[in-house]
Every structure is written in C-alpha cells, then in structure tokens.
Amino acid sequence: MGAPGPFPGSPGKSQDPVMSREEVDRALGRLAAEYEAIETSLLALQDHAGRRLLEGAELTGLTKERWAATEQSITVLWAHFDAYTRALTAARELRARRRWPSPDDLAELTELLRGTRVTVSGAAAGGGGSPQAGGGPVRLSEQFSLEELVERMNGMYAAALDVIVSADAVWSALPARIDLLAAELRRTLSLARSVGVRPGEHPAGDDLERITYELTHLRAQVVSDPLAYWVPDADRSAAPGGGRPDTARYDRAALALEDVRREIEAVLDVRQDAERRLMRLRDVLSRADRTLTEARQARGEVLAKIAASEVPAVSGPSTALHEQLSTAAEYRRHAQWHRLSPLLDSLEQRAEDELHRARESLTAVTAPLAVRAELRGRLDAYKAKAARYGLAEDPLLIERYDAARRMLWSAPCDLRVAEQAVLRYQRTVAEALRPPGPDGGPADGPQGGT
Questions:
Q1: Residue 281 in contact with residue 328, Cβ under 8 Å?
Q2: Which are the contacts of 170, defined by CB distance < 8 A and separation ≥ 6?
Q3: pLDDT tens-digit profile of 215-267?
Q4: 0.90 exceeded by the pTM?
Q5: Bridge partners of 142?
Q6: 273 near 220, Cβ under 8 Å?
Q7: CA 198 to the chain's CA centroid
Q8: Which residue among 41, 135, 287, 385 is least enclosed by CB atoms within 10 Å?
Q9: Helix 21-47 with 61-95: angle, nearest 10 deg
Q10: How far is CA 368 from the centre of its chain?
Q11: Residue 335, by phi and psi: left (phi above 0), alpha (psi -120 to 50) or beta?
Q12: What is the DSSP letter of 226?
C-alpha cells in the first residue's frame, strides 16, 4: 500500500489457531475504536464541501471522468463499510452470549476476527468503478478478512479524498484570483477607453481584448474541470490532495495585464500633459509668427530709410507646422493619444527651430538700422567729447557735425556716405584735441581715438 489511510489496521494473526478470551476482548475493543474512526472519516467525506461542489457542478473533461468513477467508488466504500459493520456486529453478539465463551465460541470468533469471513457482493467488491478493480470478470461475491477489508477501504478512501481535496483546492484558489484579476482588468479597460485605447486602434487595446477572452475562458474551464489545473506531487505516496493548483495561464495573463496597464498609464501621462504641451507649442509658433511679422515690417522700414543696402527677404509662417499643430489638436479631441505623443515630440523641436529662424531673420533684416544707430551714437559721443574740451563753438566741427547728422537723420540714408562723414568728423575732433608742436602747428602723432 501507499500512504496509510484514515482507518486503523486490523489486528494481526496470532500464532495460535484459536484466540483466547482475552485476545478476543482486546480485538473487539480495537475493532470498536476502528469502527468509530472509519465511520467518522466516511461521514466527513460525505459532508466535505468539495464533494458537495462536485455533486452540484456541471463538470467536463478530466474532472467529469474522475468524479464519475469516484462517486461509484464512494458507493462501493459504503458497501464495504456495511459489510464490516455486519461482521463486527456478528462478532459482538457472539461474544455477548456467554461471559466465559466455549471453545466452539472462541473458534468461531477467531474465524470472524481473523478469517476471510466477510462477504461482499461482486458488484461492490470488484466493479462499480472501484479504484481497486482488476478489470476481470465480475464475481458474484468475494470474501475478505477484516484486515483486508480495512486495507481495501483505505485505498478507496484515499483515492476519493484525493479527487475531492484536489478539486476543492483548485476551486478555492484559482477562481477567486481570476475574479480579482478580472476586476483589475475592468478598471484597466475603463481607463483604456478614457484615453482612447481601443481594439483595432492601439496595440494595448488588442492585448486587453485577448486578456479578457483568456480570463473568461480560463475561469469557465477552472470551474468545470478543476482537476485539469491540478499538479500532483511527484511523490505518489504523499497524503491525498498533495500538490498545487496550476497557475501558469493565470500568471501569464496577470503579467500581460501589468504590461498593458503600464503602457496605458504612459498614454494617460500623455493625455494629462497634452494640453500644456499644445499650449506651449501654440505660444512658440505664435512668437515665431510675430517675429516674422516684425521682420517683414522692419524690412519695409529699412528699404524706406536705408539706401543702397542689401536687405534679405523674409519668409512667411510655416504652413506645414500650423497644419501639423491642427492635426495634433484633432488627435487630442478624438483621444488618439498614441498618435499624439510622437507628433508632439516632433513638433516641439521643429517649433523651437522655427522661432530661432524667425529671430535670425529679424536680426539680419534690422542689421542696417543697427549700423545707423551705431553711427548716430558715435557721432553724438564725439560731439560730447568736443564740448568737454571747449570746442563746441568750433566752426569746422559744427560744419562737419551738421553734415554727418543730416546724412544719418535723412531718408533714405546712404550708410556708406554717412559712415565717411562720421569718420571725417571724428578725425577733425581728434586733430583739434592734439597739442600744438614746437612750431605752433599740430603735433605729430596718431589721429582719432576716444
């Protein structure tokens, strides 16, 4: 036999052919305790929650096959117990006839307690789906000793309990875990719909559809065929129910859902940040457009005020960028976050490039005005210097200052001619400030400088 069953073993055979009165009494005492243990175990098996679930479930596959055999085995088990009960009752009644049993009584009691005197009908002994069935022809009846009968009941009990406990363990573990994962799946589906992740439109939506199908079918299979999801211990001699639920499919679905949940959270981050990013994009493109408008206006002013100057042309706003910004806004309105995210990444860099280009255009266009402003500043600086040294009334300085000023403040202004006039005034101021030489003329030395 494998692992011991719940029922105590029968007493072994004595060397004496006939038991003594004391041996009989001791054997009957052990049998009484054995009877109570067997009855308690059978009643517990009858009331086991797993058995009630198996009886009420619509079973399929392996579980349906094994439970059908187990139900028949339990019926056989009770038939064996009835035979055991009858044999024990007969032995008790025989012993109760006399306080001091006769030799014939002791011989009969020995045969009842140790001999193969327990009769079980053929259907109950070898057929009816018993796990002990040998597969041979059904006999009308079979004889057992009490010890053999207990051993047979132990085997049938262990096999039946193994089926019941294994199915109950799967039902206790997997459906509840699947239901918790399904609840998480529903929350993830709701979140996915809120960010526009749907089957056929986003890979995560397709994954959620597959996970939903998998969990639905997995739960149905676990409920109807729990034994298909039971992995028994490698040690076959272990106690009934030794093993664990097979959670491989559940684990794969849980990992897949976790991956999808993280992806949807990333999409959610895009959604929550999309409006801020779109507003910033609109602001950058608006500043670029205003800068280009300012550059075009400045170009007109330069062409009107500055003569003989090369003024670069100014392009208009980027139509492509504005179209893509409108596309991004459409993606946001239709919750197409998976398309919006890469488009925003591209637009942000290109918008910054556009603003930089606009600023460079404005700088290039206004360069002549900057040159004129620098010449004006230099002219006024030399006039102030001349005044500090008491040369404000010098006729030559006044003449050359007025000539340069007319050129710089007239339109259009010829920058090349105006620059020469400013340089001429600058040299005149420098010469006027040079100390006189020994002969009364200006001293030799470098001219100009501030």
A1: yes
A2: 222, 226, 227, 229, 230, 245
A3: 999 999 999 999 999 998 877 656 777 889 999 999 999 999 999 999 888 87
A4: no
A5: 120
A6: no
A7: 17
A8: 135
A9: 150
A10: 62
A11: left
A12: G
Helix ranges restricted to H, 195-247: 203-224
Cβ-contact 356, 302 below 8 angstroms: no
Quick check: 413 and 369 in contact, CB under 8 A?
Answer: no
pLDDT single digits (tens) 368-403: 888 888 988 998 898 898 888 888 788 888 888 888
Q: What is the dihedral of CA 194, 195, 201, 207, to 10 degrees?
A: -80
Check residue 57 and give left, alpha or beta (phi > 0: left; psi -120 to 50: alpha): beta
Q: Which of 153, 129, 166 is nearest to 50 (CA)?
A: 166
Token couple for 275: 């409006």
β-pair type (118-121, 141-144): antiparallel
Element (H, E) at 230: strand 230-232
**pLDDT at 24 exceeding the cut of 60:** yes
> Which residue, among 301, 285, 326, 256, has the nearest Cα to 413 in the 3D structure?
301
136: helix, coil or strand? coil
- Report the C-alpha gap between 207 and 339 in whole angstroms: 18
Rounded to 5 degrees, φ, ψ at 230 are -120, 130
**Cα separation, 162 vs 48, whole angstroms:** 12
**Geometric angle at alpha carbon 417, from 415 and 422, rounded to 5°:** 90
The full DSSP string for 50-75 is HHHHHHHS---HHHHHHHHHHHHHHH
Q: Which secondary structure element, helix H or strand E, spans residue 245, and what is its range?
A: strand 243-245
Question: Which one-letter amino acid corresponds to residue 4?
Answer: P
Identify which of 350, 337, 230 has the alpha carbon closest to the alpha carbon of residue 288: 350
**Dihedral (Cα; 397, 403, 405, 408), 10-degree rounding:** -140
Q: CB 47: neighbour CB atoms within 10 A?
A: 9
Q: Which amino acid is at 228?
A: A
What is the distance between the alpha carbons of residues 326 and 92, in angstroms, rounded to a whole number? 99
For residue 243, the SS3 value is: strand
Q: Are 170 and 245 in contact (CB under 8 A)?
A: yes
Alpha-carbon distances of 239 from 28, 81, 160, 165, 172, rounded to whole Å: 29, 22, 12, 11, 19
CA atoms within 13 A of residue 405's CA, in its CB half-sphere:
11
Hey, how many other C-beta atoms are within 10 angstroms of the C-beta on 49?
11
Give the strand pairing for 243-245 and 306-307.
unpaired
